[in-house]
Fold:
Amino acid sequence: EAGVVQSPRYKIIEKKQPVAFWCNPISGHNTLYWYRQNLGQGPELLIRYENEEAVDDSQLPKDRFSAERLKGVDSTLKIQPAELGDSAVYLCASSNWDTSNEQFFGPGTRLTVL
Amino acid sequence: GENVEQHPSTLSVQEGDSAVIKCTYSDSASNYFPWYKQELGKGPQLIIDIRSNVGEKKDQRIAVTLNKTAKHFSLHITETQPEDSAVYFCAASFGRVTASKLTFGTGTRLQVTL
Structure:
């Protein structure tokens, strides 16, 4: 089966510009996660969706970050405006907690803000 | 919230030797402890996990032990091979859905030398 797909893989932007990341989870997975991974650190959860509902967005900086998961499948994470400190790898993961605890991660999008 | 500490940050072993990575967690309610392997340019991949009702789990050359009283768990890799070189993350989670919110450690860079 196809894994979690993310695009783009790399993005370089200047500060104050907007940026968007896209994620296509594994087919049938009801839960989708967005993580941010700073250099040399573990992933940190930004937001978790169960189907279309954002059930945990407590770590999402809502002044500049937004996310949506239309129809409970694909998801988009947006930053507007980007700041220097937003440079990181943004990881998307999905799971089907009806059957397994395992979270399957995509390859991530490496964002560089200049 | 949960806090996970991981040691060591880097580990170098010779091929065929064993490697041990240790993690401690702070929240006694945590009940699921996965280990992820992350290769360069890729997302983390689950290699083994353990629930709080189990003290030890083994899968070929990989084993995980859990001490709930001390709130620590460890990853053991025996007969290491060059392809084991990667960054390893421990994580902990709690909640109705056991993998609902993973808190990751800071990672251990394992290098297996010939």
